[in-house]
Specification:
By secondary structure, this protein is α/β, with parallel strands linked by helices. It has 15 helices and 19 strands. Bound molecules: flavin-adenine dinucleotide.
Length: 496
């Protein structure tokens, strides 16, 4: 067989599909816009510190294990389970909630604010678990050839779940818990999908099951970028080449066959099969010039939020701060309704802090910490001007200093800031949006941009804006789905 595959983009979805293909005899060549692999799962090394720049943990570890088995390799990185999953602190309240997986231990944290928490959480998780079991294999881990086949799959989902299609995440959590603290903490996971609990469907309460019951969250020894380094090492063994600093800007085609892609320097790249790991919606619009994906049409689609991320190296230790932490304000409902579109909401930002050096001492010099902040912000459709980035970042640093009772301003020796402008520029993300297309009903399954091209039979897609969606385990599932498509196509007789 020995088909050639050209892969555009070395993000997680791309690297994983490349390895699946290479270990099954395909000849794979990767081209990447940036000077290193990983895409959004990336790393900055600066001033003696190492920072993970995007993801800080993953769920569904068994997807990675299955991937390794499919490729007949040992998983090329080591991961460890998080428990507590993370901490949560509300502004003006010194209490820190530790999100333990053990529900009895978790209930202890809520005993003052939510009577009967243990029984309520157990019932809530039982329902989330049913949702997970009844939908994941059917809807998420499947390729759909048409909207009709998707509809048939949906019809096979147990009808007891129909009510959650008409309820928001917040409404569902509100039915289960009565205190503001429990409602806010349990619904926080909706933000991991890049939206808020108010505009995320209740069907995603299945994520609570993935957090607490099913498989939990994992960190990677040495930092998240070890995933990328490990995959690149495996690809090298399979003689897969990666050409960096090469951006695709154009194409040549004949009928329903893509002949070649053209990079910024005018070089032509061709192969039997082309796999696109660049954003599946953006690439169709900006490179293939499809009307359905023009800038104006993309703006009308439903997207996730932008992220303001910044990376601090500080010359002291922070024993009072855990590894993964969420800092919330006092106006959750008001904040959630305005943050996707209203830049004024940044006057009281909510944010996440990751102390990478806590369990990975090599990521900071002795006596220092490497810290990573993530703050959801309106994407570039709603806030184009980031001239105030230092003001926003400083307000977060000051708020953090107050909450941890330690002024870190004089300790900062390294600072790097990415606004949505940098996210857009680096990875060609529409409006600098961190997680890509949102996961509402009209943009999942067969209604999401497909992983096969509408026009060119030899073009396929993998990654966050095609099926099944955003996040690291989804990128691994996406690689499996893309691999299946490519295998089926290779055997179809289209390529003589
Ligand atoms: C701040 C942040 C925090 C996150 N946290 C988490 C987390 O904790 N857990 C989790 O599971 N997920 C998290 N995610 C989501 C996760 O990072 C993404 O869903 C995942 O990494 C996307 O992978 P992908 O395969 O879609 O490829 P991408 O990472 O988007 O990679 C695509 C690659 O294509 C390249 N490219 C684009 N256009 C071209 C072109 N024209 N020519 C050549 N190359 C091109 C890009 O440079 C890039 O390297 C986070 C994301 C962000 C932004």
């Amino acid at each position: 067989m020995n088909r050639n595959v050209l892969l555009v983009g070395a993000g997680l979805g791309g690297l994983a599909t490349a390895l699946r293909l290479a270990t099954k005899g395909y000849k794979v060549e990767i081209i990447e816009k940036n000077s290193q692999a990983g895409g959004r799962l990336n790393q900055v090394k600066k001033d003696g510190f190492t920072f993970d720049t995007g993801p800080s943990f993953f769920s569904m570890s068994y997807e990675f294990e299955e991937f390794a088995r499919d490729c007949n390799i040992e998983l090329p990185f080591r991961y460890f389970e998080l428990d507590p999953l993370y901490t949560v602190n509300f502004s003006g309240n010194p209490k820190i909630y530790h999100l333990y997986k053990d529900i009895k231990k978790l209930a202890e944290q809520f005993k003052d604010v939510e009577p009967g928490f243990e029984a309520k959480m157990t019932k809530y998780l039982r329902n989330s678990g049913k949702l997970f079991d009844d939908t994941v294999d059917l809807v998420i881990r499947n390729n759909f050839d048409s909207k009709l086949s998707y509809l048939f799959a949906l019809m096979r989902v147990n009808p007891v779940h129909i009510p959650v299609l008409f309820r928001s995440f917040w409404q569902h959590v509100k039915k289960n818990f009565s205190s503001a603290e429990a409602r806010q903490i349990i619904s926080l996971v909706a933000f991991f999908l890049g939206r808020t609990p108010f505009d995320t469907m209740a069907v995603y309460t299945l994520l609570s099951h993935t957090e607490f019951r099913h498989d939990g969250y994992y960190n990677v020894e040495g930092g998240m970028y070890k995933i990328v380094e490990g995959l690149v090492r495996e690809l090298k063994k399979e003689k897969v080449s990666i050409t960096y600093n090469t951006e695709i800007v154009d194409y040549e085609a004949e009928g329903n066959k893509l002949n070649c892609l053209v990079d910024r320097s005018g070089n032509k790249w061709s192969a039997d099969i082309v796999l696109v790991n660049a954003d599946a919606a953006v690439f169709r619009g900006s490179i293939f010039k499809r009307k359905a994906f023009s800038e104006a049409r993309l703006d009308k689609m439903n997207w996730t939020m932008g992220y303001l991320t910044f990376y601090l190296g500080i010359k002291c230790k922070l024993p009072q701060v855990s590894h993964h932490n969420y800092y919330l304000g006092t106006n959750y409902e008001e904040y959630s309704s305005s943050i996707p579109r209203n830049p004024d909401s940044l006057q009281k930002p909510y944010y996440y802090v990751n102390v990478l050096s806590k369990f990975n001492p090599d990521c900071a010099p002795d006596g220092c910490e490497s810290i990573f902040f993530v703050c959801p912000v309106p994407n570039l459709q709603y806030k184009q001007d980031w001239g105030d980035k230092h003001t926003v970042v400083n307000s977060i640093i000051n708020d953090f200093s107050k909450r941890i009772n330690k002024d870190i301003v004089p300790e900062i020796v390294s600072k790097t800031i990415y606004t949505p402008l940098e996210w857009q520029e680096q990875f060609n993300l529409h409006r600098g949006i961190g997680l890509g297309l949102s996961h509402n009903m009209s943009q999942i399954g067969a209604l999401r941009p497909a992983n096969f091209d509408e026009e060119f039979r030899n073009v396929f897609y993998v990654g966050a804006s095609t099926v099944p969606g955003a996040g690291l385990p989804m990128a691994i599932i996406s690689s499996k789905l893309a691999f299946e498509r490519i295998t089926r196509f290779s055997n179809s007789g289209f390529l003589k």
